[in-house]
Amino acid sequence: MKELALLTKALIQERKDIALSIICGFIAGIAGVVLFAASGYLISQTVFAPPLYTLIVLTSLVKILGLLRAASRYGERLYSHRATFSMLGRLRASFFARLVPLMPNLLGKKRSGELLARIVGDVESLQHYFLRVAYPPMIVVMVFLATVLFVSAYSVWVACLLIAGMLATAFVVPGLVLLGQRRVHGKLLEQRAAVSIEVTELLYGFVDLKVYGRLKEREEQLHISSDALVAEQHAAARGLLRGQSLHTFVTYLISWGVLALGAYLTITGSLEGVFIAMLLLASQTLFEEAAPLANLPAYKQDSEYAAKRLAETVHEDSTRPPGKARPRGKVQPRDKAQSPGKAQPPGKALSAEQAASIELCELSFHYEHKDRPVLKNISLSIPPGCKAAIVGPSGSGKTTIFELLLKLRASTGGEIRLNGAPITELDEASIWHAANVVLQRGHFFRGTIRDNLLLDGEQRSDEELMTALEKVLLSHKALDDEVYEKGENLSDGEKQRLALARAMLRKGRRLWLLDEPTSSLDYITEQHVFQQLLTEAADDTLLIICHRLTGLEEMDLIVVLEHGSVIEAGTYAQLMEQKGYFYEMKQIELQMIGDE
Fold this sequence. Notes:
20 helices; alpha/beta; four-stranded antiparallel beta sheet; six-stranded mixed beta sheet; Type_1_exporter; single chain; 2 domains; elongated; ABC transporter transmembrane region fold; 596 residues; 59% helix
């Protein structure tokens, strides 16, 4: 399947260690067979009191083979596991790199606990693909062929019996195991994800669950999921144990067959009795080497299912029709739809040295499997240095525009241009580097205020950091004050002001993208912070999303969205004069302020 083909490609990159592990594995396997065959022959020869030199040679051979087997087995384990862990490292890095740009879309479809289970558990399950699926058959085939050639030199009938036993081990036993595993196929990984979901939900919502008296109920649900996971683990373990038991049964059945056949051949004179113990121990050692074949189908299924889940996680249709470039100006009327074209590969950098221009040309977006589009044919031009605001009710598509500008999502129609260049041609990292971004829900890491202000890794003095805090009225905070994970010990207003201070410290960025940066502030603090923002971005392009209309009198352009479409656009004075949707929103806000 395609997913395992990608896994095989990753293994090819570790071909040196894989080749060494196969060589060491073959030496260890054949040394084991010869070791026990020589031991059996030595035991048989002692009955006939052979010359001393014969015993010395046989004893020395056994010791040498024992050392050789141990050394080669160590090398086999070393190289095979090193190849596996290197492969897993490559897969994790590759999977995470593909996952990061898709996170906004994925978090809307999958819960964080399930994503965690796939990143950790499913990738971990792929270690079985080489160690227990691809590697064992190669070793068994080589050791088996060498052993059959060796045994056939003494008895063709015993060799035929070994061939029959190996066919049963390679096909019959795995087939029976596979039939038993069909019921539990994939359920273990799914249940592991379910437990991860319950744990993350419980941890994230602990306070709310405690307040609303639902904590015990969720704890019970977690216990139920945990018990179900244990049950699936037991079922999977029973399946593996069943395969091992069947293989052991076949091994002893063949051993008894070799013993009986050897006795018969000795009686008929076709085989010397001194070789019976040698052939018996050789057959037992051979089938011990073949033990991994019994559970190979089960591990193969697990690897395929894990690879499929990972592929589904990062699968995204990257093909989308680009729009046609627009001249700068105010909101443009809708043009005819443009035919799809092939986007150039990303790689160009967005310059951070000049204020950016933003053009939206017939921009559309809708989520997969959703009929109603989020954005519908939006055309908008924001010249360099313009101060623009996007307002509108919740769910009108304001935040989606930001996500498209940052290439966190791909539009389903139309085109975005930054500084005249289609965004599809720009490297997303250069966009993030050139922009001061404050998202609606910024993240804060466990550490101190200083650590979270210095998130970009640049060195700044304490005076610079305190100046930034003063601008957002956080001067009462010390730089060494502790910040909990996700900023749990900060109020929503403090989080927003800290995020703004962090953005103000990033000098030289000429594009500001702010999503509800002051929604949790009181009106007095909001007015002060808003003025500081306008001062900081005096010569830069500033695009802000807001619900509250405070301070918009100083904006060059206000765009009003509703249900994913532009219904009004203009300056504050123009919109108030029109007495349309924006005017009604402002009147309601003034009335609410008056009531307070």
